[in-house]
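The instructor's notes for this session suggest beginning with a concrete chain rather than abstract definitions. Hand out the sequence below and ask the class to guess, before any prediction is shown, which regions might be ordered.
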Amino acid sequence: MRTFLILLLMTIGLHSFGQYPFERYPAIKYKEYANWKKIDKSGRRGFTMTIPKFFNKKYSLTIQITSGGWDSSYISLFRNGKQIQHVFEPMEINKYVDFPPVRVADINGDNMPDCKLQISYMGNGIAALNTRIIYLFQHSNHTFTKISYLDMIDGPYESDARPERDFNGDGNYEIITRSLTEYNEHSYWVYNLYNFKHNTLVSVNNKYNYPIMIQFLNRENFEVTRKISRQRMKDFAEKRPEEFSQAF
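After discussion, reveal the predicted structure:
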């Protein structure tokens, strides 16, 4: 019984105080909007939402995401009710799930709000972590670049979002992606770093000595593995996240 209690306390302590290396840096702070309405008529299904006073704290942004069939959907954007963009997204929308909130913040430090969506693929087991990350980066002409990719979040719930972190205090928050790989008969989480620059995602791994790799164990683990050298980890760097998609 004493041994069990010691193990339980160790587990609680690890969960409470464990920290990934990137969590020492300031996390972005979002405003969240969750007032989605379902669209299900005339062969179209999906979701729509209006965010008031989005552009210049004056004009609204409406986001509509509708299914385009197998592994496809479309994102339509409206400024004060007038459509400004219609872009393709390689993910099918499931109308039977609660749609996640839109997170709004200035991600790349240009003093204009951007949007982030995190949509689950609804898998089982470890596949339940598979998530589509979608960014809408605003430009000065109030159009957007849509960036999306496949990620594996830090837990099975939408609240397990991994926020962007500002590694160097420049206001352009680093985007942290996670994938799972095998090496020498072990499984590892691989974390890559990106910034939104030049209208796309640009790897900043070399700037911060990333990627890092953390061994996948049957317990919580936050430590960069010592089984692989930091130089060898660079071989697992990704120029773009998995299933990367971009549209203007």
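Then share the key points. The CA atoms of residues 52 and 58 lie 8 Å apart. Residues 1-16 have pLDDT under 50 and may be disordered.
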